[in-house]
Amino acid sequence: MPTADPQASFAQRLHALITSPRAITDLQRYFGIGVSPGAVPFTGSRFEDLAGGGDHPLVADVVTAADLIAVQTLSVTVPVPVALDLLEGPLGPRLSGLLQEIPSDLDMADADTAHLESDSPASRAWDLLVGQHGVGWVIAGKLLARKRPRLLPVYDDVVRCTLGHPPDFWLPLHAALRAQEGASQRALVGLRQAAGLSDSVSALRVCDVVVWMQHRTGHRNCP
């Protein structure tokens, strides 16, 4: 009996989630678009645009205080010693050097695998952050997603659980977005437009929000 292709299963699961009938409504609820009076958007709705965005040309290659606050809108906090090191210590210039090698104007769906593989500047930036005390993979990923929202995704336990606990994420997601001539990438761009979101919200962020919203409550009962 043939063994199921894990990559194909991942791509199918992702495409089913982003083409769900509830996807547009979930996006609008999260970002506070067309909701009832008094409804409060999720704090994460400010992750992209706070202080002009983490990928604004003036700050794209340096971590700022606004970036650290933006990460907090996604319910995580960079430990204070690490935050100070990023703002005033040697860690900041080390990360900046890697950010300078990571394109800020490239969508994941258009990237080469070389932009995401284990020896890429993006992966080395992730390793650098995870090597700091108290910075796990979730915090590191969210900080990098703030700096490179088009290329690097927000990723946490809820999204990982929803997508079947893949052992890796960047490369499977990259392949899924490019599968079937980019069907999922086109679906995400269409969702962004249909929900009334600004183009400043990347397709990757649309993906994260749609997947997260569909499992955020049920995840409480996951092992």
Characteristic key phrases:
single chain; 223 residues; mainly alpha; globular
Describe this structure in words.
With 223 residues, the chain is mostly helical. It has one domain (6-31, 42-215). It contains 10 helices and no strands. 38% of the residues are buried.
**What global shape is seen?**
globular
Low-confidence stretches: none
Radius of gyration: 17 Å
* Helix content bin: 40-55%
Largest sheet: none
The averaged pLDDT comes out at: 93
Give the percentage of residues in beta strands. under 5%
Total beta strand runs: 0
Separate helix tally: 10
Helix-strand makeup class: mainly alpha
Q: What is the H-and-E element order?
A: HHHHHHHHHH
Quaternary organization: single chain
Query: What is the terminal separation in angstroms?
Result: 30 Å
Brief rundown of the structure:
This protein has helices spanning 6-18, 23-31, 65-72, 80-88, 91-99, 121-130, 137-147, 157-162, 170-195, 203-215. The protein has 223 residues and is an all-alpha fold.
SSE diagram, text form:
Blueprint: H1 6-18, H2 23-31, H3 65-72, H4 80-88, H5 91-99, H6 121-130, H7 137-147, H8 157-162, H9 170-195, H10 203-215
Helix pairs in contact: 1-9, 2-9, 2-10, 3-7, 4-5, 6-7, 9-10
